[in-house]
Amino acid sequence: MSSQVAVQGVACSTPAAVLPQPTFRNAVAIVASGTSVGQCIQIVAMPLVAKLYGPTEFGVLAVIVAVVGIIQVIAALRYDAAVLIAPSDEVERDLLIVCLCCIAAVTALTGIGAWAYMTYPIFGLQVPAHSLLYIPLCVGAIGLYNTFHSAAVRRQDLVAIARTRMWQGGSTVGLQLAGAALAHPSAGLLIAYLGGQCTGVLSLARKVFSGPAPAISWSRIRATALQFSDYPTISAGSGLLNIASLHVPGLALASFFGLEVAAWFSLGQRILMLPLTFVGLAVAQVYNGRAAIMAREDTAALKTLFVKTSRGLFITGCLTIIPVACLAPYAVNIAMGPAWAEAAVYIVVLSPALIAQFVVSPVSGTLAIKRRLGRQAALDAVRHVA
What is the largest CA-CA distance in the chain? Predict the structure, then answer.
């Protein structure tokens, strides 16, 4: 395995072992700063956006986001998770090509499925037909972002990750404000969601594919895909179970009680997930990068990192989510208006579950990093049933 330092944008094979790395807290702060700026832009604009769009339009968005959220987990058939633990740049490049092929196939199949549902609706989701066309586009965009994001995490390119989070927040709000004038109001929210997901893909891709491109060997790529075949065969199913528990309730509410109820649920879920978005994602990105190195070099240090990170997440989650749940009944009505008052009920009810998710989600990739995917699948199945 090469240990040569990167030259002209080509990352080294073991970047964290060669380049000086910031401390865990500093690394989290770097990523969280970009995420915080992006999310703050959306939070400040939320009252204005809520006046431009009603609960029904947000209900349409909630349904599309839920469907996309489930499918995007397998957009790359979980090979994007394997990119994180690639032992060399050559293997990483081969896995990226595998991911791109999988994303193209899954996006095409999703498009066929969306067209079929437009022709033969079976679940009673009361969404405009045009909104279904955004599903394959969003699945493809998120699949690409997740793939290149994994490569950036592997290389510990934290500044690039933070920068894309800022761009995503700003572009989403800008498109939401501009899209309010469209003939179909829900289209403005959907275009903003798609645009936000696309932002950052090109910048991360340029960093990943910078430098001279090695010759493509399809036989080597096929061998690499087989080497990591436990990700599509085992991890894909467990990933679907894991994410379904988050999104299926919203789809069920939209199907049985209408789009407004789905919008209230979605807003309550989104407000409670702000700590996870601000801190949890930053912790996860730094934790996964460090854990991937420790899994190869120092398993005892990985255990210590897991325990300390989980303990810190629990304390942070309680200190942030509980006050949010207590203030929600007053803040939502003042900031969003009486049309959104019901969302406060969902915030209070969902808060215990979101504290648990805040603790578990950032460190949930530990078993996948150690390639104990069978145990990961069993845990996800138990959690889904519970």
Answer: 61
